[in-house]
């Protein structure tokens, strides 16, 4: 019987890195190898399977249609190979070894400083690698195996995942002091001037949560979407350019310190977002994720 030669995991890693980066140099950096090593590995893979995966020009790396299918399958193979190690870790002590977590930008700077010290103290053998990226990119990273779990805000369609809600994060209206005629208590949705509403750019789910809280989801295309981050939005409001919506965790973390901005909770049917931890279904590390979720929710035992 003739020998069967199979692609190596290293070759598949090079392929996926190149597909993600679209550039040989950046892909090589991501794999911690030289560009010539990565290029040679891709050529060996093409020779092995007998098809052209990548069309090479001086400036552009373009995957063939078949190359795209092979790269997608390579991601699945690599993810399942990683899960072999996950199975072994899951049989040992909880929350040990490497874990990659994506966190959306409207959570990361406000929740991580509170979360990480306790996690390091309780689980010193856990090596947690963090990625800050918007919800769509985070869910894509999860399904492509670049990350193991995602800390995000619901409602958001993240695909076929396991979800553990952690807590509700109320939404606040932030406005220049004296702009709204309120002295205490919540602000009604109809009291917000939609023409002065400053929101985050597309890609941030907080924008959709804010518009839903204002009972104006149809304003997606018309509201002033100027800010790249909540800190940028706060500076705009402090300069009198409009009003915005902030999550309670940002307000409590002191994002308004040193500004002339007031913040009041909004009184509306959908006036909060739900913070949740999600991961791929059937992951062998489910027990780890549930323990992690319990800690993030403020408990001490798995959910």
TrEMBL record:
What are the residue boundaries of the HTH lysR-type domain, all occurrences included?
Answer: 7-64
Statement: the UniProt record of this protein carries the keyword Transcription regulation: yes
Name the domain of life: Bacteria
> Cross-referenced PROSITE patterns, in alphabetical order?
HTH_LYSR
- Could you list this entry's UniProt keywords, alphabetically sorted: DNA-binding, Transcription, Transcription regulation
Q: Which CDD domains match?
A: PBP2_OxyR
Q: Does the keyword DNA-binding apply?
A: yes
- Family that this chain belongs to: Belongs to the LysR transcriptional regulatory family.
Name assigned to this protein: Hydrogen peroxide-inducible genes activator
Q: Which organism is it from?
A: Stakelama saccharophila
Lineage of producing organism: Bacteria, Pseudomonadati, Pseudomonadota, Alphaproteobacteria, Sphingomonadales
